[in-house]
Amino acid sequence: MVTTPTTGADGYQDLSAIRDRIDYTGGDFFSDNEQLRFDQLLVRLEEESRGIFETLWGDESVLEETGRVDEFRTTDDAAIPLVYPINDVSKVEYKAVNAADYKELDTDRYDFTEHRLVLSERPTTNALRVERFSGNPLERFATRATWGDLAAKLRVTYDRGFAGGAPADIKSVQIQLINQMLRKLKREQTTAAASPEELAGMSEMNEVLTDEIRNRISDVTKPGLATQTF
Prior knowledge:
Layout: H1 15-21, H2 34-56, E1 65-73, E2 79-81, E3 86-95, E4 103-104, E5 110-112, E6 116-119, H3 125-134, H4 137-142, H5 147-150, E7 153-160, H6 168-191, H7 196-199, H8 205-208, H9 211-220
Antiparallel strand pairs: 1-7, 2-6, 3-4, 3-7, 5-6
Helix pairs in contact: 2-6, 6-9
């Protein structure tokens, strides 16, 4: 008995959802065992499209991660980007100097958004002095303390990713990528003796990506833009 392939637990969407949204059927590519062979092809293209998306997204998955630990040097900024979307920050540790041991930072010293770890607004002593003499509170905020004032290195433990799987707009981008791949395979199939299975995986990423798709992937993580979750 032949089992219908599936996209796997780490896929963004299941095979039936992909079938319902693409522009082709098995008969467009195969003359025998159309559905089974087409499903096998779609599984491969789902994996390839996911890989393309994640490469352009910074080699990161959109799926949920719990207890992720990132370690990095600080900068002269009050907000440091982590991997979007940030759901919760459970621990922030810091080294005053590189040779020191890590110490845990009190939770009232930081906050977070979906994109960044933010140092709580505590102006430097110099900033308070400037405000006192100038009378302008904006000058205090312009010289507020940064992560670089606090430490040389940070280690952050946090949860990130989309808990319910890839959201609707990311799934839509993936379908657009799969359709682009199928169009390319169809064109190649008409000019070559190779089967769709042999052609799949041979396409260069730049041959599949349009400027529109690149822009849609970029838009997914821009601060202020909503990501559909229905």
